[in-house]
Amino acid sequence: MLDRFRDKDLVQGALAEIRKITTRPWAIMEICGGQTHAIMQYGLNDLLPKQIELIHGPGCPVCVTSLELVDKAIAIASRENVIFTSYGDMLRVPGSQQDLFSVKAAGGDVRVVYSAIEAVRIAEKNPDKEVVFFGIGFETTAPANAISVVKAKRQGIRNYSMLVSHVCVPPAMHAILGSPNNRVQGFLAAGHVCAVMGYEDYKPIAQQYGVPMAVTGFEPLDLTLGILDTVRMLEKGEVKIVNSYSRAVTREGNRIAQQIIADVFEPCDRQWRGIGLIPMSGWKLKSDYVDYDAELKFQVQDIQTKESEVCISGQILQGLKKPNQCPAFGTLCTPQNPLGATMVSSEGACSAYYRYARD
């Protein structure tokens, strides 16, 4: 089935229609880092008419995880009797002084896992150790991470906890569109987030800022059709939400997943790396699950940090600059020696440019 959404002729047909209807410059942001990588991998940014500028947004959970939380993760992982588990991308993200790989190299028990449930199983098998899971992600990973805490509580597993770093898309949209430096005229909404949450919450945002949005996926045809729908709305002066990813997304989303999130998490203010504090843009564990909050269990709430003065990832995440406009790009900052998370994450804009458009 995916072959159809990678069909060269279908993509070229959609691109031809975009060229046909475009009469003026438009700036469109793809909010998701996975979409950024697909756009760069398939060269869609070069195939679009010159009037269309794609702006890369902050939709990479690894990239926006605050420096404070990375340092807290490093502090916890460095302790004796701790097994620290995380998705692989986070191990290379630089903290103030080192990264989680450095902790592992120094003898810390840092393990890559593919789900929070896997971390719960490790806790079951190691009752004499404290097992911590680095719970990062947008709305997409929140249900599975919430289930891990529910499972641990039901089974009486007391040596499991989560360092929570969940963030939400709508508040980030408000922060971007409400900025005096905003250039975004249209949005490509992330299909996997909308598959969980639906897209009703985006309607008031679109109306408030006069910005049309298209929900789209990650294949070349998905993205091209999403851009086409967005350009159509922009050219007609329409402000609405179009679902360009109906094979995976419904208006209401996944109600069961939403209920799981609501049962376990509650909204909180969250620091975004390179951007700063966005009010009510994250989730934290509810009081019923506070015993599973690693930040409280290990008393690392007061760690303070300072961002690199060289790295411009904050401006990149806000769509104000492109990665290749950074003076450190590809020289002082590489995947082997990153200054910021956007260079090491598999969804980071800098890593996409380094891999697909370094020249």
CATH fold-level assignment of the largest domain: Rossmann fold
CATH class of the largest domain: Alpha Beta
Question: By CATH's scheme, which homologous superfamily of the largest domain applies?
Answer: HypD, alpha/beta domain 2
How many helices?
A: 16
- Tally of separate domains: 3
Tell me the series of helices and strands, N- to C-terminal.
Answer: HEHHEHHEHEHEHEHEHHEHEHEEHHH
Distance between the termini: 34 Å
Largest sheet: 5 strands, parallel
Please state roughly what percent of the residues sit in beta strands, choosing from under 5%, 5-15%, 15-25%, 25-35%, 35-45% or over 45%: 15-25%
Describe this structure as you would to a colleague.
GO terms for molecular function: 4 iron, 4 sulfur cluster binding; carbon monoxide binding; iron ion binding. The protein is of the alpha/beta class. It has three domains: 2-59 and 169-243, Rossmann fold (3-Layer(aba) Sandwich), CATH 3.40.50.11750; 63-167 and 253-297, Rossmann fold (3-Layer(aba) Sandwich); 313-356, no CATH class. It has helices at 8-21, 33-41, 44-47, 61-64, 67-77, 100-105, 116-125, 142-154, 169-177, 191-197, 202-209, 220-236, 255-264, 294-297, 313-317, 349-356, and strands at residues 26-32, 52-59, 82-86, 109-112, 130-137, 160-166, 186-190, 213-216, 241-243, 265-272, 276-285. Strand 8, helix 12 (220-236) and strand 9 (241-243) form a beta-alpha-beta unit. Helix 1 (8-21) packs parallel to helix 12 (220-236), helix 2 (33-41) runs parallel beside helix 16 and helix 8 crosses helix 13 (255-264). It is globular. It starts with 7 loop residues before the first helix and ends with a helix. The model has no long low-confidence stretch (mean pLDDT 94).
